[in-house]
Amino acid sequence: MKLEKILDRLGSIEKNSFIKVVDNIISDQPKNSREIEKILSSADKGLKSADSENITRVFSLIHQEFYNHLKCEFQETSSQLDILIDIIIRDGNCIMKQDWFSRLYEKEIKTIKGKIKIVENG
Known about the structure:
By secondary structure, this protein is mainly α. The chain has helices spanning 2-9, 12-27, 33-40, 52-90, 98-121. The chain has two domains: 2-68; 74-121, no CATH class.
């Protein structure tokens, strides 16, 4: 019931971002896909045209998959953050330009990928 109220109050940009994630989870054929299809069969154009009540019902069927998606996103974000922190720490004089930062970031990614290959092959 709370999600339904939140969806009713959200702007179209925020709501569409949420629906996009839910739609991607649905496209991966979650375990409750038949029930989801039944709910969405009432909506002509799928999830985007569904009302807040039906979106909430669909979400209740995929909440575990949504949790797993968020968990993966946070893990990726934290690893990206570690790289950014390493680069910023090296810039003791605070003179870094965007182009230089971009090159350092790409170099750091290549270094990490190289280390991963060594571990995988070793």
